[in-house]
Amino acid sequence: MTNQKMIQPPEAKKPMFFGIDVGGTGIKIGLTDDQGDTLDFIAIETLEPQGPADAMQRVNLACVQLLDRCSLNKSDVARAGLGTPGSQDIRKGMLLEPPNHPHWHHFPIVQCLEDALGIPVSYANDANAAAFGEFWVGTGKIHDSMVLLTLGTGVGGGVIIDNQLIVGQNSFGGECGHMIIDPSPNARLCAWGGGRGHLEAYASASGVTMRAREELQAGAQSILAADIEKITAKKIFEASEQGDAWSLGFIERTGQYLAIGITSMVHMVDPGLVVLGGAMNFGGPTTKTGQRFLEAVRKGFRERTFKNVNDGTTIEFASLGADAGYIGAAGIARSDYHKSL
Ligand SMILES: [Zn+2]
Description:
Layout (H helix, E strand, L loop, with lengths): L15 E7 L3 E7 L5 E8 L6 H18 L7 E8 L3 E2 L4 E2 L13 H9 L3 E5 H12 L8 E6 L3 E7 L2 E2 L34 H4 L1 H13 L15 H9 L3 H25 L3 E5 L10 H17 L2 H5 L2 E4 L6 H17 L1
Parallel strand pairs: 1-4, 4-7, 8-11, 11-12
Antiparallel strand pairs: 1-2, 2-3, 5-6, 8-9, 9-10
């Protein structure tokens, strides 16, 4: 399901764009118009072991199906945008070694998709695409610059400055999860590459789970202490909503870690808007715990920055949910299309 505004072809502003968001188990393919409204979308399985060429053929079939459902032709679509997990070489259109796609390594995915679709393809890191989606039609809609942190299994992100997504020399731009927030020799280890003290080791769903287990094993008092092995970020949120004081405190401490990373990012690029996306939002804006989490991030930032910078910076939850990826991929395609005119 999607929570996006769906529009009918007569209301849509041409040209159209395909947005394709490749994940570990599923691929979302959406058709948007020039204003970021979704006409329709399809989700297919990734079927990772069958490899990327097979997947791109099935993406093309889904695109044909979308056009059919909307009574449109391929000539109505100016460009497609593709988001995949890293590692990748964006400029060369190559997948490098995405860890959850072992059968997709060192593959020229952009050329493959262009051959299948017959239109030009823009390429992005999946987290960068999600950031661009939030920037185009979500929480960042009225802004020119934005930093997004995606809180999921890992911590991804994206940086957009003056309407331009920062890709970087090594296709590593906006990899906020690997910012170092703890320089001590015994700082937590990052799951990818084993660097120490990276934000992801503290504030991703997996980092949160490990920290929580350690605190409970060390004797923290909580209703979750009864089943430490089964702990998840979602269970910590649920316990907090039930009044478990340790859980709420733990979530606020997680917010503090994020605040340290966010302060460094803001002091580097001063975006004016920082957005927290991803599934690990501790209930998000509509719950008491989610609001306390966001307040902890804002407080931690306020304590570490300058007054005028704090006053001129908004920290807010994302609003597009899991649709941000395909919408952002379409948005990047749109941006490239308008630049080419
Ligand atoms: Zn890392």
